[in-house]
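Format is sequence with structure; example below:
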Amino acid sequence: MTVATARHILVDSEEKCQELKKSIEAGADFAEIARNNSSCPSGRSGGDLGEFGPGMMVPEFDKVVFSAEVGTVQGPVKTQFGYHLLEVTSRS
């Protein structure tokens, strides 16, 4: 089975998501942005979601995590929780 580790930032608007993505692409630290902006409890640990397999996250999330290039910031990804920026940190 394929497993991945990822981190994310959850916000309530697509605009906010785009704004944070621009900051990260301009060199801001993903973990720091997550701590300061994410509404998910994982924000406290820099957005780290740990390790998980296919089907353990919502489908929209899964699709990105198991297809995106490792180490690139993806998003906004809309789920029932809001808008996410996702970064796959490893996949094996």
